[in-house]
Predict the structure.
Amino acid sequence: MIAASHVNLEQAVADGRFREDLYYRLNVLRLKVPPLRERDGDVRRLAQCFFDQFRAEAHPRVRGFTHGALQSMENHSWPGNVRELINRVRHAMVMGEHPLITAADLGLTPNGPPAELTLDQVRDEAERHAVENALRRVPNNLSEAARQLGISRVTLYRLIQKHDLRT
């Protein structure tokens, strides 16, 4: 069985919002997959993969993506993650009127600036990167990592858990 969640299940168990026994049944092999917006280059490869799959199913008239569509996909923040990408590609293939999928077919701004992130999203990203870098610099030494970050060990533990980082 494969299960996925956008919720930190360890924290949900600790908070009593998720059953502990179910957590341990599901947590046999854990894979942490970062969100699509954090995986440079994956958007194009995944979009092409989904395009090939849907084209084989029933949309042979569509031949690919315009450069503007590819650029727009790279600039989009993908709040709906891979599921959003799948839906946008499928929708563009079904509803598009041209042999090449455009940014407009995908419902994205052509060659527009990168999608704006909220201040909370920017802070979370910066926080996660800072903690990851500190943990890489001083592996197996949480006290030193906390000192370098200018935070307490307790705060570092909370951030590691919040961002689902491995030590």
Summary: Residues 1-31 form one domain. The CA atoms of residues 136 and 145 lie 9 Å apart.
